[in-house]
Amino acid sequence: MAAVYRLVAHFRMTDLIFTHISLRLPGPEHHFLINPYGLLFEEITASNLVKIDLDGNPVEPTPYPVNPAGFVIHSAIHAARSDAHCVLHTHTRAGCAVAAQQDGLLPVNQMSMEFHDRIGYHEYEGVALSLDEQQRLVADIGDHPALILRNHGLLTVGETAAQAFLRMYYLEKACEIQVTAQACGTPLTLPPADVRERTARQLRGEEHGSDLQDDHAYDLAWQALLRLVQRIAPDHAD
Questions:
Q1: Which residue, 121, 126, 116, is CA-closest to 104?
Q2: What is the reported pLDDT for 62?
Q3: How far apart are CA 126 and CA 149, in angstroms?
Q4: Whole-number mean pLDDT of the chain?
Q5: Which Gene3D superfamilies does the record match to this protein (predicted)?
Q6: In the chain, where are the structural domains located?
Q7: Which CATH code is given to the segment(s) 1-232?
Q8: Closest CA to 20 of 74, 95, 81, 77
């Protein structure tokens, strides 16, 4: 979990202290870890993560508060999705730019096609401080691995912190490519729907009609990222 925070900082996906990553802990209590409100992501270590319950209350002594908007968004998804062990939310420039576009994420590039018909959209309601927004957040993400918060930012979920991070990394890259392609001012070439769907299945390991398979790609990428964290932020595990 601390490694993911450092990777988000390294890849410049932070917004000072104002975004959040949470991880559900094993056990029936529905406790989860979230960042201490007030620390930059580059300051986060394993020992200063805050352990809270679904009501946003710390369950262990901590000198740090919890971001209220982080609690509203993350607790709703953790409570509704048994597979959403990790929830990652960002406010990046490219992500916010695509979140402001009427058509949302376009199948401009192979990276975006991982999310073809597999991304939800949530209309902007203001800063997420109202508990009644939770039911709409949950309805809008459905069973998708990602959510675009209109006029706000991006969100991904995963069964592990690694999966949530890799989904966000490629969702962010897809947004960067889209904004760059649109800036050229020329018509975009988009592949047909059947190619988008096949590509989505391939990238999610659900396509079994190809001649070759690459079943270890994300595991290998995550191990490489952990080696990167060990080099750039060896104190993350403190």
A1: 121
A2: 86
A3: 11
A4: 90
A5: Class II aldolase/adducin N-terminal domain
A6: 1-232
A7: 3.40.225.10
A8: 74
Distance of alpha carbon 150 from the chain centroid: 15
d(CA 99, CA 149): 6
CA distance 187 to 69: 38
Alpha carbon separation from 88 to 8, 196, 204, 212, 221 (Å, rounded): 10, 25, 19, 32, 18
CB atoms within 10 A of CB 74: 31
CA angle 119–192–100, rounded 5-degree value: 40
- Indicate the residue type of 160: T
Cα gap 134→131, rounded to integer Å: 6
Provide the CB-side half-sphere exposure for 32 (13 A, CA). 28
Instruction: Report the C-alpha gap between 33 and 164 in whole angstroms.
Output: 14
Band (29; pLDDT cuts 50, 70, 90) = confident
Tokens 């299945």 found at: 201
Please say whether the beta carbons of 158 and 164 come within 8 A: yes
pLDDT tens-digit map of 141-190: 999 999 999 999 999 999 999 999 999 999 999 999 999 999 999 999 99
Three-class SS of residue 12? coil
